[in-house]
Design goal:
With 152 residues, the chain is of the alpha/beta class. It has helices at residues 3-6, 21-36, 40-53, 109-123, 126-134, 138-148, and strands at residues 7-13, 57-59, 62-63, 66-69, 76-86, 96-105. The chain has 6 helices and 6 strands; from the N terminus they run αβααβββββααα. It is globular.
Length: 152
C-alpha cells in the first residue's frame, strides 16, 4: 500500500483558512469525512479527543492529527497546508504549516502504525517539505506526494 492509494485529491486542502487547532481539525475533518464515508463531526470529535492526550504537532512545521473511528471501514488520509501557519501546540512551539490527517478503522493497529511511519518518513525529506510548501494548488500537492510515495 502507498499513501497515494489512500490520499484522494478531494481530501487535499492547498490553503487552509483555519486560524487555530480546533478550526484546523474541523476543516480537515470536513475534507476527509466524505472520502472516509463518515460524518465530519465524528471525525473532529475523535481527533480533538486524541489531541487531549498530547499534541500531534511533531515540530518542524508539521502535525499529524490521527484517530480511530468505528464507522470508518478503510484507512483514509487527508492533507492540509496553512500558508500562514497555525499555533497547534507543537512540540517545538512553532507554527504548523503542513498537516497530514490519518483516520483508521477502530481495530486497525498495524495499518495505522504503517501509515504513520510512512508519513513520518516522507516528512523527514527536506526537499519534499519545501515542495509541498511552495506548490501552487491541491493538484500539485497531490502530485508531489504521488512522486515521493513508496510501498510500505
Amino acid at each position: 500500500m502507498k499513501i497515494s492509494d489512500i490520499l484522494k485529491l478531494d481530501a487535499v486542502i492547498s490553503d487552509m483558512e483555519a486560524r487555530n487547532k480546533p478550526e484546523v481539525i474541523k476543516e480537515l475533518s470536513g475534507a476527509v469525512a466524505p472520502v472516509a464515508g463518515t460524518q465530519a463531526q465524528d471525525v473532529a470529535a475523535v481527533l480533538l479527543e486524541r489531541e487531549k492526550l498530547g499534541s500531534t504537532g511533531i515540530g518542524g512545521g508539521i502535525a499529524i492529527p490521527h484517530g480511530k473511528l468505528d464507522t470508518v471501514k478503510t484507512i483514509a488520509v487527508g492533507f492540509g497546508r496553512s500558508i500562514k501557519g497555525v499555533d497547534f501546540d507543537s512540540l517545538d512551539n512553532r507554527p504548523v504549516h503542513l498537516f497530514f490527517l490519518l483516520l483508521t478503522p477502530e481495530h486497525s493497529t498495524g495499518g495505522h502504525l504503517k501509515v504513520l511511519a510512512q508519513i513520518s518518513k516522507l516528512l523527514k525529506m527536506h526537499q519534499f517539505k519545501e515542495r509541498l510548501l511552495s506548490a501552487g494548488s491541491a493538484e500539485q500537492i497531490h502530485q508531489i506526494i504521488l512522486e515521493n510515495d513508496e510501498d510500505f
